[in-house]
Amino acid sequence: MTNTENSQRGVVLSLQDRARSLDSLHAVERQAGSAGPARPDEWRDDLLLSLDAMASNLHDQFDRSAGEDGLLTRVISDAPHLAASVDDLRRRQLRLVGEIDDLRQTLSDLSRTVDVGVIRSRVGELTADVRELRAWEVDIVYEAYSFDLGTAD
After folding, report:
1. Which of 9, 34, 123, 153 maximizes the CB count within 10 A of its CB?
2. 146 — alpha (psi -120 to 50), left (phi > 0) or beta?
3. What is the pTM for the complete model shown?
């Protein structure tokens, strides 16, 4: 496979990963906004399933983009002046995954009373962070290649 074919494959995989993570982000937002106070246990369980899917999709997206043929790895190779930005993005991605995992752990603790308002607030902060990191990744890729990954969110 040529360098161009590898680059194109990396872009296609990145777009597919971003689409999956965006779909799961929307599912988390829908679930967080659904009726909760009258059915907190069911709401928590449904939200946890949505968060599980989002965490899995983000893990896959972040891991693949940082992998040997990943788009962000290629950015560092092709535009070394962006290496610090990519490294900072990756650190923030790891921190975000940790925050999502913390919320999932909180929701998994069935001994805790579900406070729908508090959980919604945490979900709102997390989803805002996901959107910010998505935009930042697009900016880095665009700066490297003048190619917009798109932000249909």
Report:
1. 123
2. left
3. 0.87
